[in-house]
Amino acid sequence: MTLPSFGQQKMTPCSELNWMHQFLTKSHLRELPSESLWVEGTIRRFFEAYDYSGYYLDKDSRAHILAKAPELKENILSGGCTFSDFLWQEVEAAEKQTIELINKDSFWAFDYDSTRVASAKGIVFDNEQARIEQWRKFVQFETLLNYINLSAELPTKAAYFAHFDSLKQSIRATWTCRVEPSTPSDVKKYLYRAFLAAYDPYTEYFDQEEIAHFLASLSSEMNGVGFFVTKDFKGEYVITDVIKGSSADTKGIKKDDRLLLMQRGSEVINLFCYDEQEINQMLMDEDPKPLSVVIRSDQAIDTLELTSTKLETSAKAVQSFVLKGDRTIGYISIPTFYYTNPTGGGSMARDMAFEIWKLKKYNIDGLILGLQGNGGGSIGEAIDLISLFIEDGDLFQIHERGAAPYKVKDPDRGMAYYGPLMLLVDGMSASASELVAMVMMEQGRALVVGDTTYGKSTAQQMIPLGGDTGEMPEELMKYTTSSWYNLKGKSLNEIGIVPDIQIPTVGHRGERQQAFAPIPSKWKASQRYFTLPTAALQAASDARFAQDSMLMHRKLKMEHMSRLIDFTKGLELSYEKVADLYNTIKVLDSELGHTRFDIEVVNRSDEDEELIKWIRKDLSVLEGYSIFEDWLKLLNK
Fold first, then answer.
1. Which of 54, 60, 166, 487 is 20 to 30 Å apart from 234, CA to CA?
2. How far does Cα 631 stand from its chain's mean position?
3. pTM of the model as a whole
4. How would you classify the pairing of strands 571-572 and 598-601?
């Protein structure tokens, strides 16, 4: 990845905020709001980023920090460290108080209380008792989620309460070691992110470790020792996947084994101190030092030494399937818009063209592209993907600060696939995914099915803090340089794309910010491919949901899962409410997995079995297939 340089001078912690302010004032797509808004806003966003749940900073601490807003403004405009030094002292004192509190036995001396309603929404505490009460809600909330998601069966009421006590002890052990003092560097990171977010949510700060993870996310390849874990309802880490040919696989680690301990070099990694996501990230590190693990299987407890290697897995690459029923439909899953970069891996668009070529051998009647949950990636790859399905002509327009909008054209004449095309999207389909959907809709090239997309139509660039040394920089800033619009001048930023045919999904985005206003445009879509009968197809889909009991059950499943995801509305924690949610979801689960078509993997591998199970339970794929059948009938095909 080529990183632009802003000069060879080394930034100091006292000058970085000032430099970022000067640079973004000239270079960012959007102008900064008034000083009174962005200075106080920076402090409030720091509270949200550092202490979202409200466990550390009470009202008095927050008021004291907000009173120092003029000092922060002075530091940003002219350089200086007085505010960050003060902020560190406040954080250090608050963390010390919290650590002392949770180490007391009396803090954990509470039992199950069915009158509480749990919520993950941040709360600012007036006093210590309010802080304790929120922690108690948190423990009960964890209990509920454990039983809904992980238990094989719902226990009796007495057993449920007994498990609550066991889980409480597990959470105590976890938080006793997780709540460790922050460093000045940690506080600086939160402060920088809070300041940069004044421009938009996509202007961000990265430290060196985060840079490596970000670049790896844009690659189709994966590194690691070769297994992944999840935490079960007993608090143990269970191995969920083992990648064939990996170090873990060659040492005999199996699915459903338990991970008891990890050690890298002389550092013993206490599993209680990290969450599931952090443990899995460690398992994917490229650290050359061997990782020692203690694994419990059905037969024995073994200590094994594993090494990190490049993993042969298709989990991050496009994968193609054939859905065989009354019609033969190709289905290509696109997890991200990856590209060839220094961390390795192939190009998404190139891989996509190869998958299309393979699917043509099955004489498919149509093609579905799965963009559910795809948060974006390389805009260049998105353009190349569009080019596979568009003959030629104008695609969309880009607007940069201080410049007239300009058109982006199809880079290549010709098409890789000429037949009927469908895109599946949801609330987590963002950025590059939305660009593809926007162009395809405007051109009439594809039928878009699913839920309203995320709403991000901006592009970012990365620049190192401290000068471009030619090596991996220690710090990066990612900032917004442009926004894209359709040919009519409409932006989907913070609005998203409303699909042609709407069906319920779990990945639904919540609160949105202010949308971009349309811009004048003299251009229009260059050609139309299909006249899409959206009204007739939506009516047929609605009728299926009303008449098909299995579809109704799947829709209920989506609604129940959405209730679990939308934590801010709160959940009642009585045993009766838990039992109702549990039984409803488990019954619906038992009825999922039955499809009107068979699924064939174009290039079968062991890991494809899990993806096939997911496809069979994905409402958008199941209903998308039926919608495609209706569409083909209307096309007389």
1. 54
2. 32
3. 0.82
4. unpaired
